Every structure is written in structure tokens, then in C-alpha cells.
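Example complex used in Figure S2.
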Amino acid sequence: MPSVCTGFWRAPEVRRRTILAAGASVAVAGSLIGLTRGRAAGPWRFFTPPEARTVDAICEQFIPGDRDPGAKFAGVVNYIDIQLTRAFRKHRQAYRKGLAEVDSASLAKFGKPFADLPPDRQSDVLRGIEANSKAFFELILAHTCQGFYGDPRHGGNRHMVSWKMVGLPYPPVRGRQHYEGA
Amino acid sequence: MTLRHVNAVIVGAGAGGGMVAKELATAGLSVVLLERGKWYSAADCRKDDLYNQRTSVLGAKFGPDEERNPRVLVDARGRETIVPPSDGAYSNNAACVGGGTFSYGAQAWRYLEKDFRMRSTYGAVEGSTLEDWPIGYQDLEPFYEKVEWEMGVSGDDTGNIFKAPRRKPLPMPPLPPGKEHQILQPAASRLGLHPFHIPMLRNSVPYNGRRSCMRCRWCVGFACEVNARTGTHNTVIPTALATGNCELRTGCMTREILLDSAGKATGVAYFDADNRLQRQTADLVIVSAGAVESARLLLNTRHRLFPNGLGNRHDWVGRNLQGHSYSGANGLFDHDTFDDVGPGASIAICDYNHGNPGLAGGGMLANEFIRLPYHFATAMPPWVPRWGLEQKEFIRNYYKRTVVIFGPVQEIPVFDARVQVDPKVKDAWGIPVARLSGGRHPHTVEIGRFLAGKAEAWLKEAGAMRTWTRIPGRSLSGGQHQAGTCRMGNDPQSSVVNRDCQLHDVDNIYVIDASVHVTNGGFNPALTILANAARASANLLRAWKGSKAIA
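Predicted assembly (733 residues):
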């Protein structure tokens, strides 16, 4: 009998329980130890409200709105926040530290937190991060791309804005309709 | 706890193991097929562009489990990293019933005659263990044909003047050509190349009780929605089970092969789906876990006679890990090339598999499967900024205006590209994990550069305004086309199994998967794994004299 494939949304909890039941010690699980709990006061799962504002602004720099919506509208910050409680748990430390660096670089250079800067100054700060904190820059850039162009079910790409932008027709499983003769 | 004794226990229900299970069960042997993953159906697997076999940024969709199965990667500078299955460096192939064939693109290639005689054709290559196979194309030909007709391959290679002789044509016609095919076909002909329709384990018309491809964009990396794509999970494994002689056990992680005092196999020890240690005794043990895990299982089997791992008296187990160095080019067009008709890949040439001046081999070139938006966004040309409006503008303008041509470079094997077992890191069951180290041969990169240049020329002839190449460097290969770690050969001192895939050291243990490939062809390896599994099974059955007696 085909076994039921656990849905992505519930997978992490199930996995953790399985490990405990097996009484096993997996070396990678060690990376979870010593991290902050992550649940912040406010609407976010992991980010503090100021952090979320910073992420939102960074993502919008990466994929700005023009005649098509950008990362802010697509809810990329929501994607990253959700994944930091799931598949990206191992990146929590990197985000906490990286975002603090973005704000301190921003304060040092322009005297304001990143999210309060005008767009041209934000990209100026980001170029500095790209040069000096390469690992974090690459991480959040890749995650932004996923959150904008990936499936909306993971929290980003609201209203499928990026798919509409490239002209990818709905339904996502093209072929199903004509195959079924509908 | 001891389970009912059977004739054969097979570790791994992928391409190799699935085929062996069917051949043995059909011949009347009692078989237990162990698979560490699950048995999925298409209905279990929503299409997800961030969570599938090919794009695993949110996890390895078809296994193995992210947290229970780490591996250790040693990079060129000797730094060790523990990597999970979703990490590219892990060299993952799906862990599920069907293995890679559950979610692959289904290209069904026969290797060419020279692919079995690389050493004779090109001579020794410095720093490489390049060698001939102990079998030739003619040994596999009847089994290629058997797999093509029994499982079902569509396509049309009559235009391929480089193909090795075949007795029967493919059983199904190709799918009608899509837009990319129509653009690339005349361009190839103008260049004097010999384009043809890629053979695929995919129904183009209803075949063997399954439906035909509905040509959706979610193909490679995903479960097939309508069961038109063909793997061992929907052909030979159900056939094996229908005989009543084969039992499939999923969620079962094999720990080691059990040996008696004389070094003969008596079965395997494995953890079942509830993590209970089980012993399955058997007359024969067939290892079909894929190039990384098969080597790991042998190396984790220690015995007085095999202190360095089973079959490893001459230090060849885990060596020569290879895959395919996919090299090629992307091209930009001034008109739409995207027609949203799957699977995308459909046209290929074999003009550059062999006979390339100064190069030891080459590879097939074919157009790429449909690129989903996220996948597209990860393959930007070098002249486009990596972020900002310009990048967004590029994706908006060109998502539907690119063609990608890639080819699996036949890799030049390296002795130090290898699988070991890690001395410290263990998986969730306490079994030492695979430790991967080494890299590609520089000549592999050279061949890649050559092939990428040819891909660019083809794209330009087809009208591409601008092109850019992608050529993998010298980092370790493996991945879904992993092969080579339990080399097949006549000399026990420089190979692990004989031409029948039987361990040189223990005659009732077989390794039947891509591990035994001496070289891996300039093609996707699935059909060769299947055909070789059918061949090895036939030889095994000829030698089979009933329980406890393999001649």
C-alpha cells in the first residue's frame, strides 16, 4: 500500500518526534541547541517587529516594485519568517546576527535604521553588506528569490504576482484540464 | 527476532533493486525487498517548485528524511561539513520506492559501444582509473531491448547515426515536437548535426495499462500526476508483488550484511519502520542502494575476513565515485520559445559523444526540461546584476525567451573521488554515515568546456541573440547519476564485483545498481542500470541451484 506522504506543513514536528522515539542522537540536531526560542512578541513567528521591517526593506531592494509588484507586496518576509520556524531553523542565528549588522551599518553610515532610509541609501548599505557579510547576504538573497518566485503556499508570492509577471498561465498543472477533457 | 527465511533479500527498491526483485520473483524465488523510504503515489505529492527532487531548498521531497540521514562532506581543503539530504553537496538520490525513477525526467538511453571500452578507445589518462567494462554493448543489447519493451520507451532514434545497433525499434512513437524542438531541429541540420527524438521511459500513447503523458510543465523532479512516466514503482515492482513471491518492506534501514564464520552471507540486519532491529535471513543478498549507500553498506559490514569492509580487501569499495558533469549553454531569443508543453526535453544529438579531437570522450547534448520561475531565476547570465530592478526586468522579459542545451559529460574516473564511512558521525540508527571526498578530473572539466561551446554554437545557429555557458568545476561529482563505487571487473585486485555483479570475495552477495558502472556513459544512466540488472538477474538465475546452492 502506498504510504501517505506527510504534508510539508506538519513535517518538522513529526520528524522531531520520530527522533526522540528512536532515542537517537543525530549530529545535525546539535545545531538546534543554544538558539533563541524565536517566538517574538508581535505578529511574527521568529522576527521581532523591527527585524521584520528590516527584512521587508532588504527584500524590496532585491526585488523592487515597478509596474509589477515587488518583494514587499509579495510577502517575501512572511515566507522567510515561516521557514525560519521550519526548513530554515538552522539559519536563525545567521538572521539575528545579520540583521543586526545591517542596522548597525546603516546607523553608522547614515544615522538611521535601515528601514527608515530612502531607497538609494538602502542599496548603498546593501552593497556594503554584500562585500563585508557575504554569507548572510547570499542567504537572504536566495531566500528572497524563493519567496518571490516560489509557490505561494509557502507564504510568499502573494496572489502569484511573480508568476503573473512572467506570464505563466493558470492552472499551475497545465495539461490537466485538456487531459481530463474538461 | 528472526523472520521467515527467503531466497533473496534485496536492499533498495530503486532502478536496480526493483528490476532484480521482479526477475527473481517471477522465476519463483522468494524475495524480500527492503526500502528505507516510502511508497508514494502521485496523489500524495502536490507539485511544489521549492520542495521536490530537483529543487530541494525546503527539503528533499522524496527522501531520505532530512534529520535522520546526515553525511559528511570533505572539501578540497580538507574541511569537514555535516550535510543534510537537501544540501547539494549531499549527492542525494531519492530514497523511495522507485528510487530515482519515481521523480526523474525519464530519459532512456542506451550507452554506445565505445562507452564500454573507454580505456581501449582513448588509452590511459593520467590521474584517472579509466578502464573498460568487463562486458560490452552486445552483452547488454538484448536486455536494453527487454527493458524498452517491457517497461515501455517512447522516442525515435532513427535519425541518430551514431547509435549502437539495435534489433528492434522503440515500442512507442515520440511525443509531438514542442516549440524548442522545432527551433533547434532545423538549426542542428544546418550545422550538419544529426538531431533526433530523445528516448524516454514515458508513455506517448497508452501502454501496458497506463495512460499517456499529458505534457504538463511539472515533470522532472515531481511525481507524475497520471502515471504516464515509467519507473520501477509502477512497473516491475508491482509485477514482482503480484507473483506472490515478493514482499516489499518500506521504512526499513539496513544496518549491515550478516556473514557466517566462513564469510558467506546469511542475510541482513535492518531497522524496520518502527526502528526495531530485525534479521532477515536469505540465501542471497542483493545490494541495490545506489552508489553512495551501497558502498556504505559494504564498508559498514565488518568481519574477521574483511576488517576494512566487505569486498574491500584491495581498497576499491567506494572508489571512483562519479556522476555527470552537466555542461552546456543558455541562449536568449527575441521571440517566445516557451510553449508550456512538457516535458520540455525532447531533442538530442550524439555527434559529440566520441571522436572529439584531443578529448577522451564527450557527451550527448539535449534541450533542457521546462524551467519553472524559481529555477529560471537561479540561472542568470553573468552580465545581469544579481539583484535590483535590472534583474527583475530581465526575468520578466526573458522567462519565455530562453533555450537551454546541456549534456552529461562522461566523467573521467578518479580513484580518490570516494565514499568512506565516517569514524565519528552516525545516523539516527547509530550507523556510521557516508563520508564523501575528492573531486572531478581536470579533463572532465575540459570536455565540459568543449561541449558547452558546441551547445552555444547550436543555440546561435537557432537564432539566439546572446548565450552564456555553464561548466561545473572540479568539485566532487555524484548526485542523481551517482555511479562507479563498486566497480565491475575481471581482476579481483582492481574491482569489487565480477561481470555478473557478484562480489569477488563472497559468491552469494551481489551489487546490482550503478555502483558497478566502470564508466558512466555520456548519457542518463537509468536504462543501463535497468538493463544491467536484468542481465545480472538472468545470469544469477542460470547459476541458481535452489536454496543454499549458487554455483
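Chain B has a mean pLDDT of 96. Chain B touches chain A through 59 residues (CB under 8 Å).
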